Amino acid sequence: MNIGEAAKASGISAKMIRHYEGIGLIEESRRSPGGYRIYSNNDLHTLSFIKSSRSLGFSLDQIKQLLSLWQDRGRASSDVKALALQHIKELDDKIAELSAMRNLLQNLATECHGDNRAECPILQGLEQQCGEAKAKKT
Amino acid sequence: MNIGEAAKASGISAKMIRHYEGIGLIEESRRSPGGYRIYSNNDLHTLSFIKSSRSLGFSLDQIKQLLSLWQDRGRASSDVKALALQHIKELDDKIAELSAMRNLLQNLATECHGDNRAECPILQGLEQQCGEAKAKKT
DNA sequence: CCTTGACCTTGCCATTGTGGTAAGGTCGAT
DNA sequence: ATCGACCTTACCACAATGGCAAGGTCAAGG
């Protein structure tokens, strides 16, 4: 099947399929005489695996590892689990970070009348030491 | 004060201060005869405001709006609150998305023995319809 | 046989926010 | 005069995705 069909079937855009090939996440596909990429059901299976992994928030780099474990019959499930647990931790950290932001902001917003007067606890909060909320990049 | 001191005092890197100037988030600063940027306490105040806003997860675009409201004596606090509520919604959406991922992944991980055998429910989950987890970009 | 339209190809640019590096200028102190 | 610490601009990079443009392929229908 062509890339368009593979895209539709896998839920990954044609653009991204080409990109994944370019960065070596998937192998270069076979080509038709005219140069069109051709995908087998097996390829589609791989694309779907990638799609699922992306849906769970794994990075392309992590997916590269997942893929090689997936294709390694001699893998230890502990290796997979380690990757998963690490990602769960990343998710938890991010969730905690966002929740902290949310709560701080919610507090400020609650105090704000939200009328046509200029006085505004939200702006006052931002003006002050509000930066205490440590928001680290991950 | 020079950009280095302003950076240290505001918690925003010199690199970013220049960048913010470049994209018009802050005005071009005064310059010393030698071409060095010079910052006043007032400028520092603005930088701190930006820092706080970033800590709460506002985008630079949103911060541009916040800044103009902040500097507008005739603002209505409702406008600020609207911005804040919108951002809270964004945060909530993101948190919900990440939590959904986390929970799905946690379920898979719980079922995985994590030993040296190859059988692995996590990989099996990714292989199957796991893509059900709709993870939309925001 | 030739045209048309749908699909494919590559390649480059944009996004968001931040970091890095390089080549050079400034400044204060010795 | 010189040295080190700081500054300047101007590029490149990341991650993951989208968009556009100029051109090639292919199948169907006239």
N/C terminus separation of chain A:
39 Å
Biggest sheet record of chain A:
2 strands, antiparallel
What is the total number of structural domains of chain A?
Answer: 2
Which pair of chains has the greatest number of interface residues, and how are they split between the two chains? Answer: A-B, 62 and 62 residues
User: Would you tell me the structural class of the helices and strands of chain A?
Assistant: mainly alpha
Q: For the largest sheet of chain A, list the strands in their spatial order.
A: 1-2
Average pLDDT level of chain A: 92
Oligomer kind: homodimer
Rough outline of chain A: elongated
How many strands of chain A?
A: 2
Please state roughly what percent of the residues of chain A sit in beta strands, choosing from under 5%, 5-15%, 15-25%, 25-35%, 35-45% or over 45%: under 5%
Gyration radius from CA atoms of chain A, angstroms: 23 Å
Uncertain stretches of chain A: 133-138
Q: What percentage of residues of chain A falls in helices of 4 or more residues?
A: 55-70%
**What's the total helix number of chain A?**
6
InterPro entries (chains A, B): CueR, DNA-bd_dom_put_sf, MerR-type_HTH_dom, MerR_fam, Tscrpt_reg_MerR_DNA-bd
Subcellular location (chains A, B): Cytoplasm
Keywords (chains A, B): Cytoplasm, DNA-binding, Transcription, Transcription regulation
Domain HTH merR-type (chains A, B): 1-69
